[in-house]
Amino acid sequence: MTTPMLTKNQTLVFDVLTKAESPLSAYTILDKLRDQGFRAPLQVYRALDKLLEYGVVHRLESINSFVACAHPDENCHSHGLVAFAICESCGQVIEFHDHEVDHRLMDWLKSQKFKAEKSTIEIRGHCAKCAA
Amino acid sequence: MTTPMLTKNQTLVFDVLTKAESPLSAYTILDKLRDQGFRAPLQVYRALDKLLEYGVVHRLESINSFVACAHPDENCHSHGLVAFAICESCGQVIEFHDHEVDHRLMDWLKSQKFKAEKSTIEIRGHCAKCAA
DNA sequence: TCGCACACGTTATAGCATAACGCAATTGAT
DNA sequence: ATCAATTGCGTTATGCTATAACGTGTGCGA
Ligand SMILES: [Zn+2]
Ligand SMILES: [Zn+2]
Ligand SMILES: [Zn+2]
Ligand SMILES: [Zn+2]
């Protein structure tokens, strides 16, 4: 997916996520953008929908939050799965890709004739710094 | 985790999930149990918390729903990750385990000194029957 | 000019989850 | 026997997450 020009709201939301050090919930984003004129959740959700569609933002299902893509320039997303390690102490997220995991999962799905469309791989725990 | 005797509410919730053909949301479970005296969401959530703790029920993060474990007798859960293929047409869920995927993910996490505690692997798409 | 697509704003509502209180039964130590 | 701690339960209220439904304005090609 080639990313078209972002609209004003999309840019605001994307910038907030890019500057954040941890994933943010839609409502947290809303609060951060009230000074820029945001008033309602839909303004955030509509922007997020587009950013997700363009692949420049990921949704973390297990914590109802959103992060900017950590590898916006690689085209891994088009042919591979994305995985996340989420620290429950500091909130830091590491986004990673592993083709071996991809292929293994895809093979299994293929063996079941299951047509995959979206995937979620999220590991929660404690990062090196917080586990000490 | 050895599963202790279930309480009345836990049994009711577990039975509903066991009989269901698809994952159920907590509020759907609540509705199904109103005739048995359930009145409030907390009655469901408290039972679910215990059932999740005992490992006899899984939570599907990507669809805010719950399913009975499909392999209650295997002890895979103690040493392996659990994955789900979720059909977005018929709602059917296939629970599966793949040690190769486990090891690969665990190795990566180890290389990052990340201490994993909970994992979520969910693939959404269309099952063989619905993809036709 | 008309029709359409798209972004946007606003209000209201739906859906998911937990806080906080109090009561009752159980257990296990003193 | 008594007390304290634990656990489950019921209820009310609240908070967080997400979408429905309506209307506006703008740009653009037929
Ligand atoms: Zn990414
Ligand atoms: Zn951390
Ligand atoms: Zn299971
Ligand atoms: Zn299906």
TrEMBL record, chains A, B:
Zn(2+) binds at residues 87, 90, 127, 130. Its cofactor is Zn(2+). InterPro entries: FUR (IPR002481), Fur_C (IPR043135), WH-like_DNA-bd_sf (IPR036388), WH_DNA-bd_sf (IPR036390). Binds 1 zinc ion per subunit. One of its GO terms (biological process) is regulation of secondary metabolite biosynthetic process. GO terms for molecular function: DNA-binding transcription factor activity; transcription cis-regulatory region binding; zinc ion binding. Gene3D superfamilies: 3.30.1490.190, Winged helix-like DNA-binding domain superfamily/Winged helix DNA-binding domain. GO terms for cellular component: cytosol. Keywords: DNA-binding, Metal-binding, Repressor, Transcription, Transcription regulation, Zinc. Belongs to the Fur family. This is Fur family transcriptional regulator, zinc uptake regulator. It comes from Rhizobium lusitanum. The lineage of its organism: Bacteria, Pseudomonadati, Pseudomonadota, Alphaproteobacteria, Hyphomicrobiales.
